[in-house]
Structures are given as C-alpha cells and as structure tokens.
Specification:
The complex is a heterodimer of chains A (about 450) and B (about 260). Chain A has one domain: Formate dehydrogenase/DMSO reductase fold (Up-down Bundle), CATH 1.20.1630.10. With about 450 residues, chain A is an all-alpha fold. Chain B has about 260 residues and is α+β, with helices and mostly antiparallel strands. Helix content of chain B is about 25%, strand content about 15%. Chain B is built from 8 helices and 10 strands. In chain B, strands 8-1-10-9 form a 4-stranded mixed beta sheet. In chain B, strand 4 and strand 5 form a beta hairpin. The longest helix of chain B is centred in the N-terminal third of the chain and has 14 residues. The relative contact order of chain B is 0.21. Classes of the chains: A mainly alpha (about 450), B alpha+beta (about 260). Chains A and B meet through helix 6 of A and strand 2, helix 4, helix 5 and strand 6 of B.
C-alpha cells in the first residue's frame, strides 16, 4: 500500500540504515536549530517566568474580572495538541491501519512533549506554584486531601494518568527499535541503548508479549485520551460563567483537541520528511489520509461552534447575549473571525486531493489551523470572564509582554524536547515499517545483519 | 460493613441541602438600599480592619483594586435626565457557593457558622474561585504589597497580611466573630448575643443601612429585617443561596 505513493523499493536493511543514520549522523543545521531553540527557551520562557515568580502574577496582564489569561489558554492548547498523537496511533493500531506505521512514533512523541509543556504551563499559571503538590492526594502531615469535587483536581488526575499512559506506550513500542539501534551503534550510544532496550533479543515469546501488551495499552488509552480533554473542558463548563456553562463543552474540546493535534502531526511530518531524510517513509499517502481526517474534523468543529452559538442565543438570557455579542463583535472580534477563517473556512480546500497530496500547502494549512486553534482557546478565556453577571465589574483582559514571551518560549521548549527526541528515539518505527513491505527473498550473505536482529521475517 | 454505613451516614448528612441551618449560627447581613447613601464609609472601614492593601494608581487602572466591599454604580438615562443607582457588593457568603466546589486544595470551604471561609495558607492561586464567583467579589494578590510608614502602624494585628499569589475576600470580619464567641464562652454563656458582634462595615455605616446578625435567632434584628417584603437576593436565579439579603429601594418615580 505504501508503495503506491512512492514506487521506489526499500529493502529491510535500508530501513535500519536510514533510521540509525538519523540518530548518529548529525549535521550542523541540527546544532544551530537546537542552540537557537534552547536560547529562545531561556530568553523567552525561563527568564520571564523567574521574574514572574519573584514579582508575582502581576507580571502578566490578568486583572480583576479576567483572572485567567493566556497561560490557561496555552495549557489547553498544549493538552489539545497532545491529543492526536497517542490517540490517533492507538485508534489506527486497533483498526489495523498500516499507514500509521511510518508516522506514529513521532506523533506519540508530540503527545508526550506537549503534555510536559502543558504541565509546565500549569506551574506558570498558578499563583503559588511551590505548593502545586497539594493538588495530588498523598499522605501528609496536614492530614488534608485535595478537594475531590473540584474539576481542577480531576484535571491533575487525568493529565498525570494520560502522561504516564502515553509514556509507557511510546517506550514499549520502541523497545525492539532500541535493540536494533543497540546492535548498530558503538560507544556511549551503545551503552545507552543497552539500558533502554531492556535486554530485548527478538524471540517469538518476546514479540508475542509485546504485541499483546501493546494492543492492551492501545485499547486502554483511547478512552483515557477522550476523558482528558473532556475533563479539561469541565474547568470551564462546571462554572456558571455565561458562554462557558454549556454541556457541549466536553465534545467541543475533544474535537478541537484532535483537530489541532492532527494539524500538529502534519507539521511534524513535514519537518521530519524535509530535515531528517524520511522522505521514503512519510509519503503523499500519509498527507492524503491526514488531510481527509482534518477535513472531517474541521466540519465537526464548525458544527459544534455553531451549536455553541445557538445554545447561547436560544437561552434568551441577557448575560448570554452579552457574552456572545462581546465575542462576535466586541474588542476581540477580529480574532474571532480570524479563527473562523483559519479553522472553518480554509480547511474546506482539503476536499481537493491535489491539495492534500502537495506538501507545502499542507504545511501552511496545518500551521494556520493551529494558529486558529490557539486563538479559540484564547478567546474562550479572554472574552467570557470579563463579561459576567454584574456590569459594574466588567473589564478587559489584554496579555502582557511577559505572557506573550512565555507563549513563544513554551513553543521553543516543545521544539527543544522534540529535537532531543529525534536523536535518542528512532523517530520512524523500524520494525513496524518493515511489516508494511513485501517480504524479501531469504538472503544468507554475511552483510545482511540488519534483518536478523529484529526477526521481522 | 460499619465503615460503609458510617460513610453513608456522613454522606447523607453533608449532602442534604440546607444542613447548615442546624449549625450554631448562620451569620447574615441585610443591606437596605433605601437607607444606603453610597458614602463609601464601609469600603474604608473594611480596608482599615482587614489589612486590605492600597494598590496605588497604576494597579487600580489595570483593574487590580482590592475592595472586599465595593459600591457598584449603575447610571440610568442620559444627561441631564440621569439617575444613579448604587449597591454595595461584598462576598455573599453563599450556602451553595460555586467557589467552594472548584478549589482543588479546599482552600475555601464552608465553616460551621455558614461562612464561606478562605484559608490563605492553603491557597495555591489557581484563581478558579474568582472565575466561578458570579458576584466578582474575590480579589487576587497580584504581587506583594507594602504599607508606607506610618500606614504600617495601623495594620490590624488580628488579621494576617496576605502574600502574592493568594486569593482573598470578605470574611464577615471573622476575627471579630471569633472574639465574640470567645467572650461568650468566658462569660459562661453559650451563645453570642444579638448585636454583640458587627463587621467593620456594619459598625461604621452612618445611615444604619447594614444590619448583621444570626438569622437562626428569630428575635434578632437581622431576622426582622430579612422578613421585610422588599427583601431579595442578588442573582437569585443562580441558586447560590446567599447570606446577604438586599432590601429593594422604593422608587417613587416608577409609575
């Protein structure tokens, strides 16, 4: 199936060569990019955050009615971005879609790193992050539990569970690849992969158990992923803030999360293809399939957005009208219509197969979608809180420079983590990609070591 | 199975709506809008009593004022045919408080007097309580505040000074309530007498628009005031069950 898009034959040995090369051979461009992103992370994330820790949250733009700001928007955005990776990978694994195999590793890594960034955003968001451990139920001298009724507490549970689940999932799926790389490397890398591969030998029993456990986890993670973003949405929906107190919020957030996550995967796929030399593995077929998924999700997302507006309108409550009016025609109206343009109108072009199979337009669209999705999260926070029940307490929320800088810095943090990942983890699954190729003729020459150590024959 | 039945009994006790009606006291305030002149003395008194910081011009312009009680102003009509309505707004000490359910660390909880208490030392500053509060009466410490000399001399020793990153709000002057209860105990009396305790705003109100007391005591001044036909709750449709009762302003011009 993979061959149909790119007719060149790839032998099993070449897969190993390509993947190991991506780990071992490092060009100058990589170091420059890594140094830049680390520098940006320090300058735009750690420095402003230290200032904020010292000064207090007054460093951000939050004020009396608008007490939540871009930090929370970023948190939702990163949680959302995390959604497609592991979830998509699990769903496609369960449904036996073989096109998943070339891209799932990096998609899962995206999940992991965006979850880590999201957790950091929570630390940035709260007023006293040095006490954040109080949200976790652990035996303590104060004899205090966290508040089990609080949606924020559910959040802590859901995010940590999802983080644990997806970490185990990505690690377990990589063990055979670690072993393959272990057998092809030397020096400190070899030692590292000896540890990481947990003594994998590629026996039939090992393969059998891996497959069983992998499928088990995949089934386990799907409901988990859906619940995580539903729970994040309850932070808003369980309040009585006009325009947030809606039952549509859980599906709205889940669809939005998968939508922005899928767009994120397209972006990452493009980068891997272009800069890591995986052009033979990540093909037009993947972009075509992801494009179809994006189209469906954009339609769903648009539908839910319309439902959200109508729910407010039909309520007939003056507070809901005010909130709607402020969002659609108020101070942030240009952002709202930008979001509609990027997330509801622009993706309609995906109906054309020619568009779906051209790489650069897909990259541009995927970035536009994620800009639109960030805007969505920002608007949820910034347009509802300043317009609540008592008009005397109405206000405006405008992000400060510290917030904007931290927003950029969190992106740099994500990029840094991803850059480190591609040098440690085989970012294309060696053994699963081979499963999609036709079986080679038996080859007894001594040069074909690559096949034997994985036993995928 | 005794563990389960214990749990069930406790659950039923605390899940029953209105269980707090059987508490020792149910502190309540009434605000008579007919008497209120909007002078703002209560705002000042509260600021002096509760060590509420003076944030300064810049922070005020950013919308970061700290006023546990504020006078909300609503203009009606166009100049010159213009009318001003005002309403003092403070923490309503809701019995079904949205802010209490959302705090992940239980920093805000319902105490045995029906008060909506805030534990500053427990607060981690998620600010979700302020989002959930429909009355917008929770105030966040955006930074550490300082009191220029000699203002630091007038800080109330009975009230803690809050650090950055902590949420705060009206407590019905809980320090005074505690003191009154201690006095009552020392006098070998069981209960606090009506009028024995008053929050700073009530004490200072020159037109006696504010009345404070225990609504469980049918003889108390506040019970009488609550039963006025003009009584209403702000945003009653939200079912927060507030402990602050407003008495409607009688408008002679409404025809």
């Amino acid at each position: 199936m993979l061959m149909s898009a790119e007719p060149r034959e790839i032998s099993f040995a070449e897969v190993n060569d390509d993947v190991v090369r991506s780990l071992v051979v490092t060009g100058r461009g990589y170091y420059v990019t890594l140094a830049t992103s680390v520098a940006v992370m320090f300058a735009c994330f750690l420095f402003p955050w230290s200032f904020q820790l010292y000064y207090g949250l007054g460093a951000s733009g939050i004020n009396h009615p608008g007490v939540w700001g871009t930090y929370l928007a970023s948190f939702i955005f990163w949680i959302g971005l995390s959604h497609s990776g592991t979830l998509l990978s699990c769903v496609l694994h369960i449904t036996n879609s073989s096109w998943r195999k070339a891209m799932y590793r990096s998609a899962e890594a995206m999940t992991l790193f965006s979850l880590l960034v999201a957790a950091t955003m929570v630390m940035v968001h709260v007023g006293r992050p040095w006490f954040i451990h109080w949200t976790v139920p652990y035996p303590n001298q104060m004899e205090m539990w966290p508040n089990f009724r609080s949606p924020l507490m559910f959040d802590v549970m859901a995010v940590t569970t999802y983080l644990t689940g997806s970490t185990i999932f990505i690690y377990m799926g990589t063990i055979p690849d670690f072993a393959a790389v272990r057998d092809r490397t030397a020096g400190w890398r070899h030692n590292m992969y000896v540890l990481l591969s947990l003594g994998w030998r590629g026996t039939d029993t090992e393969w059998h158990r891996l497959h069983w456990a992998y499928t088990f986890l995949a089934v386990l993670i799907v409901p988990l992923a859906v619940s995580v973003h539903s729970i994040v949405s309850w932070d808003f929906a369980l309040s009585i803030v006009p325009a947030l107190h809606q039952t549509i919020f859980a599906p709205y957030f889940v669809v939005g999360a998968i939508y922005s996550g899928t767009a994120g995967i397209v972006t990452v796929m493009f980068m891997l293809r272009k800069y890591m030399g995986f052009g033979h593995y990540i093909t037009k077929l993947h972009f075509d399939n992801l494009g179809k998924l994006l189209l469906v999700l954009s339609l769903l997302w648009t539908y839910i957005n319309v439902v959200e507006l109508f729910t407010g309108w039909y309520s007939g409550a003056s507070t809901e009208y005010e909130a709607l009016g402020y969002r659609l025609f108020g101070f942030y109206a240009p952002l709202y219509w930008e979001m509609i343009l990027f997330c509801a109108v622009a993706p309609l072009i995906l109906i054309s197969k020619r568009f779906r199979t051209s790489f650069v337009p897909m990259l541009v669209l995927s970035i536009l979608i994620n800009i639109g999705m960030y805007t969505e999260r920002f608007l949820i926070v910034a347009t509802s809180l300043p317009r609540q029940y008592l008009p005397d307490a109405w206000g405006h929320y405008i992000p400060s420079m510290v917030e904007i800088s931290i927003m950029v810095g969190s992106l740099a943090m994500f990029v840094t983590l991803f850059l480190l990942f591609v040098k440690i983890f085989p970012s294309v699954s060696i053994y699963e990609v081979k499963e999609t190729f036709p079986e080679p003729e038996p080859d007894d020459s001594p040069g074909s070591a690559a096949v034997s150590d994985n036993g995928v024959t | 199975m005794s563990f389960i039945s214990d749990f069930r009994a406790k659950w039923q006790e605390y899940r029953r709506p209105g269980y707090y009606e059987e508490f020792d006291y149910a502190w309540t305030m009434t605000v008579d809008l007919d008497r209120c002149t909007g002078c703002g003395a209560c705002v000042t008194a509260c600021q002096a009593e509760n060590n509420t910081p003076i944030v300064g011009e810049d922070a005020y312009a950013k919308g970061r004022q700290m006023q546990w009680i504020r006078i909300e102003r609503y203009w009606e009509g166009e100049f010159p045919d213009i009318k001003l309505r005002f309403i003092p707004m403070l923490c309503q000490q809701c019995d079904a408080a949205p802010c209490e359910t959302v705090c992940p660390v239980s920093a805000t909880y319902h105490n045995q007097d029906g008060l909506n208490a805030q534990v500053y030392n427990r607060c981690i500053g998620t600010r979700s309580c302020a989002v959930y509060c429909p009355y917008e009466v929770r105030y966040f410490n955006y930074n550490n505040h300082h009191w220029d000399s000699p203002l630091d001399q007038q800080l109330n020793p009975d009230v803690s000074v809050r650090e950055k990153g902590v949420m705060e709000k009206c407590t019905f002057c809980i320090q005074r309530i505690r003191q009154a209860k201690d006095h009552a105990k020392d006098d070998n009396r069981r209960r606090v007498r009506d009028g024995e305790v008053q929050p700073a705003c009530v004490q200072t109100c020159s037109s006696e628009a504010l009345v404070f007391g225990n609504r469980l005591d049918p003889e108390s001044q506040v019970s009488a005031s609550m039963n006025d036909p003009r009584a209403y709750h702000v945003l009653e449709e939200l079912n927060t069950d507030p402990s602050v009762v407003y008495l409607k302003k009688v408008d002679a011009n409404v025809g």
